[in-house]
Specification:
mainly alpha; 3 helices; disordered C terminus
């Protein structure tokens, strides 16, 4: 639960930084930041599973939940990326 809140705060921070910077950051850099957040989220989720359960149960639970988490995070990534880019373009006057 704490990891998901931290993940949403990190996305909010990236969104706020993109609105504060007058020119958009390179697309590749933003994709790398999102990929880094995704990897960190999955790493923290698997570590929390291993601390909460025994090793065998945590491995089976994390392998069953991994596709679900990956789909959810990629959908969130696409939604946040589209929303922030449209807000940024609206802000600097490129969107017409």
């Amino acid at each position: 639960m704490i990891v998901m809140v931290l993940h949403s705060y990190l996305y909010s921070l990236v969104f706020a930084l993109r609105l504060l910077i007058p020119l958009p950051l390179p697309f590749l850099l933003l994709r790398l930041l999102r990929l880094l957040f995704l990897v960190l989220f999955l790493l923290f989720a698997s570590v929390s599973f291993s601390f909460s359960f025994s090793f065998s149960i945590s491995v089976s639970v994390s392998f069953r939940l991994l596709p679900f988490l990956l789909r959810r995070l990629l959908l969130l990534d696409a939604f946040v990326g589209r929303a922030s880019f449209s807000a940024l373009y609206w802000e600097i006057g490129i969107w017409r």
